[in-house]
Amino acid sequence: MQDPRTQYSMDNKRSNPEQPDPGLDTILKPQADHGENSYQGCNRLAGRKALITGGDSGIGRAVAIAFAREGADVIINYLPDEEKDGKETLKQLEGCDGKSWAIVGDISQQDFCQDLIKQSVDKMGSIDILVNNAGKQIFVEELEELSSEQFCQTYATNVFAMFWLTKAAVPHMPPGASIINSTSIQSYQPSAGLLDYASTKGAITSFTKSLAKMLINKGIRVNGVAPGPIWTPLQQSGGQPAEKLDHFGEHVPMGRPGQPAELAPTYVYLASQESSYVTAEIMGVTGGAHLP
Ligand code: NAD
Ligand code: MG
Protein backbone atom coordinates (compact mmCIF):
# COMPACT_ATOMS: atom_id res chain seq x y z
CA MET A 1 0.00 0.00 0.00
CA GLN A 2 1.28 3.45 -0.85
CA ASP A 3 0.16 7.07 -0.59
CA PRO A 4 -0.78 7.94 -4.20
CA ARG A 5 0.17 11.60 -3.74
CA THR A 6 3.80 10.70 -3.22
CA GLN A 7 3.97 7.58 -5.38
CA TYR A 8 5.94 9.51 -8.02
CA SER A 9 8.24 12.43 -7.39
CA MET A 10 8.57 15.03 -10.13
CA ASP A 11 11.22 17.71 -9.93
CA ASN A 12 10.27 21.19 -11.08
CA LYS A 13 12.60 21.30 -14.08
CA ARG A 14 10.60 19.49 -16.67
CA SER A 15 10.95 21.42 -19.94
CA ASN A 16 14.44 20.21 -20.62
CA PRO A 17 14.58 20.55 -23.60
CA GLU A 18 11.31 21.31 -25.34
CA GLN A 19 10.96 18.71 -28.04
CA PRO A 20 9.84 18.97 -31.65
CA ASP A 21 6.57 17.26 -32.60
CA PRO A 22 6.26 14.25 -32.34
CA GLY A 23 8.04 14.13 -28.99
CA LEU A 24 10.09 11.16 -27.85
CA ASP A 25 10.01 9.25 -24.57
CA THR A 26 13.68 8.47 -25.18
CA ILE A 27 14.60 12.09 -24.34
CA LEU A 28 11.74 12.92 -21.96
CA LYS A 29 12.98 14.53 -18.75
CA PRO A 30 12.26 13.29 -16.18
CA GLN A 31 11.66 9.85 -17.69
CA ALA A 32 8.14 8.46 -17.42
CA ASP A 33 7.00 5.16 -15.89
CA HIS A 34 5.29 2.79 -18.33
CA GLY A 35 5.18 -0.15 -15.93
CA GLU A 36 8.41 -1.61 -17.29
CA ASN A 37 9.47 -2.71 -13.81
CA SER A 38 6.09 -3.11 -12.17
CA TYR A 39 3.28 -4.43 -14.38
CA GLN A 40 2.47 -8.06 -13.61
CA GLY A 41 0.12 -9.85 -15.99
CA CYS A 42 -2.08 -12.82 -15.15
CA ASN A 43 -3.39 -14.03 -18.53
CA ARG A 44 -6.37 -11.69 -18.68
CA LEU A 45 -5.84 -11.28 -22.45
CA ALA A 46 -4.35 -14.66 -23.33
CA GLY A 47 -4.46 -15.26 -27.08
CA ARG A 48 -6.15 -11.94 -27.94
CA LYS A 49 -4.94 -9.85 -30.87
CA ALA A 50 -4.47 -6.15 -30.19
CA LEU A 51 -3.69 -3.13 -32.37
CA ILE A 52 -2.59 0.00 -30.49
CA THR A 53 -2.07 3.30 -32.32
CA GLY A 54 0.54 5.58 -30.78
CA GLY A 55 1.93 2.47 -29.08
CA ASP A 56 5.55 3.65 -29.17
CA SER A 57 5.38 6.05 -26.25
CA GLY A 58 3.40 7.47 -23.36
CA ILE A 59 0.05 5.88 -22.55
CA GLY A 60 0.22 3.66 -25.66
CA ARG A 61 3.55 2.17 -24.57
CA ALA A 62 2.20 1.41 -21.08
CA VAL A 63 -0.86 -0.25 -22.64
CA ALA A 64 1.33 -2.28 -25.02
CA ILE A 65 3.49 -3.54 -22.13
CA ALA A 66 0.44 -4.45 -20.03
CA PHE A 67 -1.40 -6.17 -22.91
CA ALA A 68 1.67 -8.23 -23.83
CA ARG A 69 2.20 -9.28 -20.20
CA GLU A 70 -1.47 -10.29 -20.09
CA GLY A 71 -0.77 -12.69 -22.97
CA ALA A 72 -1.97 -10.73 -26.03
CA ASP A 73 -0.36 -10.47 -29.46
CA VAL A 74 0.36 -6.77 -29.94
CA ILE A 75 0.88 -4.52 -32.96
CA ILE A 76 1.98 -0.97 -32.29
CA ASN A 77 1.68 1.83 -34.83
CA TYR A 78 3.58 5.11 -34.77
CA LEU A 79 5.15 7.74 -37.04
CA PRO A 80 8.48 7.22 -38.87
CA ASP A 81 10.16 9.91 -36.69
CA GLU A 82 9.40 7.81 -33.59
CA GLU A 83 11.51 4.80 -34.55
CA LYS A 84 13.68 5.09 -31.40
CA ASP A 85 10.65 4.95 -29.12
CA GLY A 86 9.03 2.20 -31.19
CA LYS A 87 12.15 0.02 -30.97
CA GLU A 88 12.36 0.53 -27.20
CA THR A 89 8.70 -0.48 -26.77
CA LEU A 90 9.20 -3.60 -28.91
CA LYS A 91 12.21 -4.47 -26.75
CA GLN A 92 9.97 -4.29 -23.69
CA LEU A 93 7.51 -6.71 -25.32
CA GLU A 94 10.15 -9.36 -25.99
CA GLY A 95 9.91 -12.41 -23.79
CA CYS A 96 6.13 -12.20 -23.34
CA ASP A 97 3.91 -15.11 -24.41
CA GLY A 98 2.37 -13.26 -27.36
CA LYS A 99 4.03 -11.99 -30.53
CA SER A 100 4.64 -8.32 -31.25
CA TRP A 101 5.18 -6.19 -34.34
CA ALA A 102 5.47 -2.53 -35.34
CA ILE A 103 3.67 -1.13 -38.39
CA VAL A 104 4.94 2.40 -39.04
CA GLY A 105 2.90 5.07 -40.83
CA ASP A 106 0.73 8.17 -40.69
CA ILE A 107 -2.88 7.54 -39.65
CA SER A 108 -4.00 10.98 -40.79
CA GLN A 109 -4.05 9.38 -44.27
CA GLN A 110 -7.11 7.27 -45.05
CA ASP A 111 -5.20 4.90 -47.35
CA PHE A 112 -2.67 4.13 -44.64
CA CYS A 113 -5.43 3.43 -42.09
CA GLN A 114 -6.91 0.82 -44.40
CA ASP A 115 -3.48 -0.64 -45.05
CA LEU A 116 -2.69 -0.74 -41.31
CA ILE A 117 -5.79 -2.85 -40.67
CA LYS A 118 -5.04 -5.11 -43.64
CA GLN A 119 -1.45 -5.67 -42.49
CA SER A 120 -2.63 -6.27 -38.92
CA VAL A 121 -5.13 -8.92 -40.02
CA ASP A 122 -2.48 -10.55 -42.26
CA LYS A 123 -0.18 -10.84 -39.23
CA MET A 124 -2.64 -11.70 -36.44
CA GLY A 125 -5.65 -13.22 -38.22
CA SER A 126 -8.19 -10.98 -36.46
CA ILE A 127 -8.39 -7.83 -34.39
CA ASP A 128 -9.87 -8.56 -30.96
CA ILE A 129 -8.82 -5.27 -29.35
CA LEU A 130 -8.49 -1.96 -31.19
CA VAL A 131 -6.98 0.85 -29.12
CA ASN A 132 -7.42 4.18 -30.91
CA ASN A 133 -4.86 6.03 -28.83
CA ALA A 134 -2.74 8.16 -31.20
CA GLY A 135 -3.32 11.86 -30.81
CA LYS A 136 -2.06 15.28 -31.85
CA GLN A 137 -2.03 18.22 -29.41
CA ILE A 138 -0.46 21.59 -30.20
CA PHE A 139 -1.18 24.51 -27.84
CA VAL A 140 -2.01 27.81 -29.61
CA GLU A 141 -2.80 30.80 -27.42
CA GLU A 142 -4.81 33.01 -29.81
CA LEU A 143 -7.52 32.15 -32.33
CA GLU A 144 -5.80 34.15 -35.09
CA GLU A 145 -2.67 32.03 -34.67
CA LEU A 146 -4.50 28.73 -35.08
CA SER A 147 -4.01 27.76 -38.72
CA SER A 148 -6.47 25.87 -40.88
CA GLU A 149 -3.69 23.35 -41.52
CA GLN A 150 -3.28 22.61 -37.82
CA PHE A 151 -7.04 22.46 -37.24
CA CYS A 152 -7.50 19.96 -40.10
CA GLN A 153 -4.46 17.87 -39.14
CA THR A 154 -5.61 17.59 -35.51
CA TYR A 155 -9.05 16.43 -36.68
CA ALA A 156 -7.56 14.02 -39.24
CA THR A 157 -5.29 12.43 -36.61
CA ASN A 158 -7.64 12.39 -33.63
CA VAL A 159 -11.08 11.90 -35.20
CA PHE A 160 -11.03 10.92 -38.89
CA ALA A 161 -8.39 8.23 -38.34
CA MET A 162 -10.55 6.74 -35.58
CA PHE A 163 -13.42 6.46 -38.09
CA TRP A 164 -11.23 5.06 -40.90
CA LEU A 165 -9.51 2.51 -38.64
CA THR A 166 -12.69 1.42 -36.91
CA LYS A 167 -14.62 1.01 -40.15
CA ALA A 168 -11.86 -1.10 -41.67
CA ALA A 169 -11.32 -3.15 -38.48
CA VAL A 170 -14.89 -4.07 -37.53
CA PRO A 171 -15.31 -6.77 -40.25
CA HIS A 172 -12.31 -8.51 -38.63
CA MET A 173 -13.56 -8.19 -35.04
CA PRO A 174 -15.39 -11.20 -33.57
CA PRO A 175 -18.13 -11.02 -30.90
CA GLY A 176 -16.40 -10.33 -27.59
CA ALA A 177 -14.00 -7.86 -29.20
CA SER A 178 -13.36 -4.47 -27.63
CA ILE A 179 -12.64 -1.00 -28.99
CA ILE A 180 -11.03 1.49 -26.61
CA ASN A 181 -10.62 5.15 -27.57
CA SER A 182 -8.31 7.58 -25.78
CA THR A 183 -10.37 10.69 -25.18
CA SER A 184 -9.48 13.29 -22.51
CA ILE A 185 -10.64 15.39 -19.60
CA GLN A 186 -10.40 18.12 -22.28
CA SER A 187 -13.61 16.70 -23.69
CA TYR A 188 -15.40 17.97 -20.57
CA GLN A 189 -13.17 20.81 -19.32
CA PRO A 190 -11.71 22.36 -22.48
CA SER A 191 -8.77 24.74 -22.02
CA ALA A 192 -8.29 27.98 -23.91
CA GLY A 193 -5.33 27.30 -26.19
CA LEU A 194 -6.48 23.78 -27.08
CA LEU A 195 -9.45 24.71 -29.27
CA ASP A 196 -8.76 22.13 -31.98
CA TYR A 197 -7.55 19.39 -29.64
CA ALA A 198 -10.27 19.78 -26.99
CA SER A 199 -13.01 19.75 -29.61
CA THR A 200 -11.61 16.57 -31.18
CA LYS A 201 -11.80 14.97 -27.74
CA GLY A 202 -15.44 16.07 -27.44
CA ALA A 203 -16.03 14.38 -30.80
CA ILE A 204 -14.24 11.22 -29.64
CA THR A 205 -16.41 10.99 -26.53
CA SER A 206 -19.62 11.21 -28.59
CA PHE A 207 -18.21 8.93 -31.31
CA THR A 208 -17.44 6.34 -28.64
CA LYS A 209 -20.94 6.35 -27.15
CA SER A 210 -22.70 6.34 -30.53
CA LEU A 211 -20.47 3.58 -31.91
CA ALA A 212 -21.06 1.48 -28.80
CA LYS A 213 -24.80 1.52 -29.49
CA MET A 214 -24.21 0.55 -33.14
CA LEU A 215 -21.75 -2.25 -32.51
CA ILE A 216 -23.35 -4.04 -29.58
CA ASN A 217 -25.49 -5.75 -32.24
CA LYS A 218 -22.26 -7.47 -33.31
CA GLY A 219 -21.19 -8.26 -29.74
CA ILE A 220 -18.44 -5.63 -29.83
CA ARG A 221 -18.04 -3.29 -26.84
CA VAL A 222 -16.79 0.29 -27.27
CA ASN A 223 -15.49 2.43 -24.43
CA GLY A 224 -13.24 5.40 -23.84
CA VAL A 225 -10.58 6.37 -21.33
CA ALA A 226 -10.37 10.05 -20.35
CA PRO A 227 -6.92 10.76 -18.89
CA GLY A 228 -6.19 13.88 -16.89
CA PRO A 229 -2.69 15.41 -17.04
CA ILE A 230 -0.27 12.56 -17.79
CA TRP A 231 3.51 12.88 -18.09
CA THR A 232 4.20 11.96 -21.75
CA PRO A 233 6.10 13.43 -24.73
CA LEU A 234 2.84 14.90 -26.07
CA GLN A 235 3.09 17.64 -23.44
CA GLN A 236 6.75 18.55 -24.12
CA SER A 237 6.39 18.75 -27.89
CA GLY A 238 3.97 21.67 -28.16
CA GLY A 239 1.06 20.21 -26.18
CA GLN A 240 1.65 22.73 -23.38
CA PRO A 241 3.33 26.14 -23.41
CA ALA A 242 6.89 25.79 -22.07
CA GLU A 243 6.21 27.93 -19.00
CA LYS A 244 3.43 25.59 -17.87
CA LEU A 245 5.48 22.40 -18.03
CA ASP A 246 7.30 22.82 -14.72
CA HIS A 247 4.00 22.74 -12.82
CA PHE A 248 2.10 20.49 -15.21
CA GLY A 249 -0.59 18.48 -13.42
CA GLU A 250 -0.22 20.15 -10.03
CA HIS A 251 -3.71 21.69 -10.23
CA VAL A 252 -5.59 18.39 -9.82
CA PRO A 253 -6.55 17.18 -6.30
CA MET A 254 -3.74 14.61 -6.41
CA GLY A 255 -1.28 17.50 -6.82
CA ARG A 256 0.85 15.80 -9.46
CA PRO A 257 0.67 14.55 -13.06
CA GLY A 258 -0.18 10.90 -13.66
CA GLN A 259 2.26 8.41 -15.14
CA PRO A 260 1.41 6.25 -18.19
CA ALA A 261 1.69 3.15 -15.97
CA GLU A 262 -1.28 4.40 -13.97
CA LEU A 263 -3.49 4.28 -17.09
CA ALA A 264 -2.69 0.78 -18.34
CA PRO A 265 -4.89 -1.22 -15.90
CA THR A 266 -8.00 0.66 -17.07
CA TYR A 267 -7.27 -0.29 -20.70
CA VAL A 268 -6.67 -3.91 -19.63
CA TYR A 269 -9.98 -3.95 -17.78
CA LEU A 270 -11.89 -2.56 -20.77
CA ALA A 271 -10.18 -5.02 -23.15
CA SER A 272 -10.78 -8.10 -21.02
CA GLN A 273 -13.88 -10.18 -20.33
CA GLU A 274 -13.95 -8.70 -16.82
CA SER A 275 -15.75 -5.67 -18.26
CA SER A 276 -18.33 -7.75 -20.18
CA TYR A 277 -21.27 -5.55 -19.07
CA VAL A 278 -19.47 -2.25 -19.74
CA THR A 279 -20.00 -0.45 -23.04
CA ALA A 280 -20.57 3.19 -24.08
CA GLU A 281 -18.63 4.17 -20.95
CA ILE A 282 -15.94 6.81 -20.50
CA MET A 283 -13.63 6.02 -17.59
CA GLY A 284 -11.69 8.91 -16.09
CA VAL A 285 -8.13 8.53 -14.79
CA THR A 286 -7.57 12.10 -13.75
CA GLY A 287 -6.01 12.43 -10.30
CA GLY A 288 -9.35 13.67 -9.00
CA ALA A 289 -10.36 16.23 -11.65
CA HIS A 290 -13.89 15.01 -12.21
CA LEU A 291 -15.72 14.26 -15.42
CA PRO A 292 -19.32 15.58 -15.41
P1 NAD B 1 2.38 10.35 -26.87
O1 NAD B 1 3.00 11.47 -27.63
O2 NAD B 1 3.29 9.42 -26.21
O3 NAD B 1 1.42 9.53 -27.80
C1 NAD B 1 0.73 10.08 -28.89
C2 NAD B 1 1.07 9.21 -30.08
O4 NAD B 1 0.24 9.58 -31.18
C3 NAD B 1 2.48 9.39 -30.59
O5 NAD B 1 3.37 8.48 -29.97
C4 NAD B 1 2.36 9.09 -32.07
O6 NAD B 1 2.84 7.78 -32.35
C5 NAD B 1 0.88 9.11 -32.32
N1 NAD B 1 0.56 9.93 -33.49
C6 NAD B 1 0.39 11.27 -33.53
N2 NAD B 1 0.12 11.63 -34.81
C7 NAD B 1 0.11 10.50 -35.56
C8 NAD B 1 -0.10 10.21 -36.92
N3 NAD B 1 -0.41 11.19 -37.80
N4 NAD B 1 0.00 8.93 -37.35
C9 NAD B 1 0.31 7.94 -36.47
N5 NAD B 1 0.51 8.16 -35.16
C10 NAD B 1 0.41 9.41 -34.72
O7 NAD B 1 1.37 11.02 -25.81
P2 NAD B 1 0.22 10.40 -24.88
O8 NAD B 1 -0.05 11.47 -23.90
O9 NAD B 1 0.55 9.06 -24.42
O10 NAD B 1 -1.04 10.37 -25.85
C11 NAD B 1 -1.84 9.21 -26.05
C12 NAD B 1 -3.30 9.62 -26.08
O11 NAD B 1 -3.68 10.07 -24.79
C13 NAD B 1 -3.62 10.75 -27.05
O12 NAD B 1 -4.84 10.46 -27.72
C14 NAD B 1 -3.82 11.93 -26.13
O13 NAD B 1 -4.69 12.89 -26.68
C15 NAD B 1 -4.42 11.25 -24.92
N6 NAD B 1 -4.36 12.05 -23.70
C16 NAD B 1 -3.16 12.40 -23.16
C17 NAD B 1 -3.14 13.18 -22.03
C18 NAD B 1 -1.86 13.62 -21.38
O14 NAD B 1 -1.90 14.45 -20.48
N7 NAD B 1 -0.71 13.10 -21.79
C19 NAD B 1 -4.35 13.60 -21.43
C20 NAD B 1 -5.54 13.22 -22.00
C21 NAD B 1 -5.54 12.45 -23.15
MG1 MG C 1 5.36 8.73 -29.57
UniProtKB/TrEMBL annotation:
Q: For this UniProt entry, which segments traverse the membrane?
A: none
Q: Which PROSITE patterns match?
A: ADH_SHORT
- Keyword terms of this UniProt record: Oxidoreductase
Using the UniProt annotation, give all residue ranges assigned to the region (Disordered). Answer: 1-36
Quick check: keyword Transmembrane helix in the entry? no
Q: Span of the secretion signal? A: none
Compositional bias annotation for Polar residues: 1-10
Sorted alphabetically, which InterPro entries does this protein's record hold? NAD(P)-bd_dom_sf, Sc_DH/Rdtase_CS, SDR_fam
* Similarity annotation: Belongs to the short-chain dehydrogenases/reductases (SDR) family.
Instruction: Read off the PANTHER family from this record.
Output: NADPH-DEPENDENT ALDEHYDE REDUCTASE 1, CHLOROPLASTIC (PTHR48107:SF16), NADPH-DEPENDENT ALDEHYDE REDUCTASE-LIKE PROTEIN, CHLOROPLASTIC-RELATED (PTHR48107)
Q: What is this protein called?
A: SDR family oxidoreductase
Q: Origin organism of this chain?
A: Catenovulum adriaticum
Task: Provide the taxonomic classification.
Answer: Bacteria, Pseudomonadati, Pseudomonadota, Gammaproteobacteria, Alteromonadales
